[in-house]
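Lecture notes, continued. The same structure-token format from the folding unit now serves as the input rather than the output. Read the line below as a description of shape only.
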């Protein structure tokens, strides 16, 4: 009887979790017919490094080859030193970053509290604005 009640409880919890999900609505993207993708000149070694990162990234590994070329061409390297702020909370963002090597700590400030470490990004992780 205990096994049955535990199974029933797990089933209820699973159903409850599933019922809390909310639908996501996305507007279709309409591209301007005169849009041309950005192309940043790179050395072959940089292109290969970016391809490797894209293939291991959950956000990019599903792209078709022509889409990967567009993303690779548009990326440009930004070197940051330890302690540099990449994105500041509350400011508008206009870039999407993918970590090539090293790590980036994410701190969030709530009210008057000191900023708290909430996560760490590592090689292959991406963050920022996609628009």
């Amino acid at each position: 009887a205990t096994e049955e009640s535990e199974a029933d409880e797990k089933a209820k919890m699973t159903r409850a979790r599933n019922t809390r999900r909310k639908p996501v609505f996305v507007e279709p993207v309409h591209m301007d017919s005169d849009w041309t993708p950005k192309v940043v000149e790179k050395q072959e070694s940089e292109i290969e490094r970016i391809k490797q990162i894209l293939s291991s990234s959950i956000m990019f590994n599903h792209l078709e080859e022509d889409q990967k070329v567009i993303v690779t061409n548009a990326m440009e390297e930004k070197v940051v030193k330890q302690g540099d702020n990449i994105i500041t909370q509350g400011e508008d963002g206009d870039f999407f970053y993918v970590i090539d090597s090293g790590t980036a700590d994410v701190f969030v400030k709530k009210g008057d509290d000191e900023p708290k470490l909430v996560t760490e990004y590592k090689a292959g992780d991406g963050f920022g604005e996609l628009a």
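Point for the exam: The chain is about 30% helix and 15% strand.
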